[in-house]
TrEMBL record:
InterPro entries in alphabetical order: RGS, RGS_RGS5, RGS_sf, RGS_subdom1/3, RGS_subdomain_2
A Gene Ontology BP annotation from the UniProt entry: negative regulation of signal transduction
Function text: Inhibits signal transduction by increasing the GTPase activity of G protein alpha subunits thereby driving them into their inactive GDP-bound form. Binds to G(i)-alpha and G(o)-alpha, but not to G(s)-alpha.
Annotated protein name in UniProt: Regulator of G-protein signaling 5
Amino acid sequence: GVPIPPHVFFFRAKEIKIKLGILLQKPDSAVDLVIPYNEKPEKPAKTQKPSLDEALQWRDCLDKVLQNNYGLASFKSFLKSEFSEENLEFWLACEDYKKIKSPAKMAEKAKKIYEEFIQTEAPKEVNIDHFTKDITMKNLVEPSLSSFDVAQKRIYALMEKDSLPRFVRSEFYQELIK
């Protein structure tokens, strides 16, 4: 991106808003917009467009999609467009859950995940069979880091088998490999 000259920062707030508004309407330049406050620039999160090689690897590897911020964002937008983002949201909630250290926080988060995704008529109920649901409920009597493992694996398999092939055929993905 083009470095922003220092005098830009002396504009009145209103003018800055207008300038930012104009920049944000052009998504290409928004990516380059790095506000040069820090003396030592921090490494930005990897949200730049993946290389063609990277994007092509996503076709048969859900892991590669989920590990790439841009891939994850594209996949999420695609699932939203299909009204089926609850599977991904559940998978991500489980990933966060496994990072919890405190038993009290774990119990609290487990209850939240259960109420949001697992229980019958949950607001974002995921499609898991009764067997998986029963195991998960038993595991939640004493929440541990592996409480949701079975359900998470089921949902991962479902996304891999069902959502990933549709994502690869979607315009979200086709745009990336042009």
